Amino acid sequence: MKYKLEICVDSFDSAINAQIAGADRVELCDNLPEGGTTPSFGTISNVRKRLNIGLNVIIRPRGGDFLYNDTEFEIMKKDIEICREQGVDAVVAGILRRDGSVDIERTSELAAIAKPMSLTFHRAFDMCSDPEKGLEDIIMAGASRLLTSGQKNSAVEGLEMIARLVKQAGRRITVMPGGGINLINIEKIIIQSKAHEFHLTGRKSTNSEMDFQRSNIFMGGYTGANEYTRKVADVSLISKIVEILKDKSC
Questions:
Q1: What's the rounded Cα separation, in Å, for the pair 246 and 48?
Q2: Are 199 and 6 in contact (CB under 8 A)?
Q3: Whole-angstrom Cα distance, residue 238 to residue 170?
Q4: What is the mean pLDDT of the chain?
Q5: How far apart are CA 44 and CA 41, in angstroms?
Q6: DSSP class of residue 234?
Q7: What is the spatial distance between Cα 44 and Cα 85, in angstroms, rounded to a whole number?
Q8: What are phi and psi of 163, to 5 degrees?
């Protein structure tokens, strides 16, 4: 079976770099420091025009928890409709109830609205109260893929649970490890998880081309952030991971 690589990106440039590097698809987000929120219409539209590989778009109206009020849920549904109109391949979402269980009803509604796009249930799963039941609920809701770090801060830390989830899922849903995957640990994750799809950012820092740079002002509202550097998908790094996946594919 061929291994697949999904690159999480938060800009047009990173999406193009992921394609150049040989990734199978991208997950397009905004606001990655908060775990990703829905990108702008303009970003979705322009990425879709230039991307030949798969395009998945996160549907998350805000950072924070995954308990959404009625207005936020309506926003999610409208964003999914926009993605469908733009020819997006899949949407990525996750909704929990107050008790930490998967919100089957609302997730099912999103999956139905998304068709013919598929739906990936994202790392909201890692915050659910019962992972085994949560997986069954996500399958019941109609998701085709689950992104998870195994309810740990990284996929390496959560490998034991990821492997259990892959076994539990069988062929009913794709369980895709994500969270801290890099060139150093990818082979270990491949071998121990038994998964066939993998999710990572593969980014590097790049410097601003601004000639004039004002220091000591932080647009993000906290000190320590460098306003004149940003992270973009690294073609070289992702290409190396793609080669590892090709070598391991049977």
A1: 26
A2: yes
A3: 28
A4: 95
A5: 5
A6: -
A7: 11
A8: -60, -40
Contact partners, residue 139, CB within 8 Å, separation at least 6: 169, 172, 173
Say how far apart CA 62 and CA 175 lie, in whole Å: 24
Q: What mean pLDDT do residues 6-29 have?
A: 98
- Core vs surface per residue 160-189: b (16+ CB within 10 A) or e: ebbbbbbeebeeebbbbbbbbbeeeebeeb
- Residue-range domains of the chain with CATH: 4-203+234-248 (3.20.20.380)
Q: What is the pLDDT of residues 163-182, one digit of tens each?
A: 999 999 999 999 999 999 99
Structure tokens at 161: 């649970």
Rounded to whole angstroms, how far apart are CA atoms 192 and 225? Answer: 36
| Residue 97 exposure: Cα atoms within 13 Å on the Cβ side | 12
Written as six digits, the tokens of 246 are 């090709």
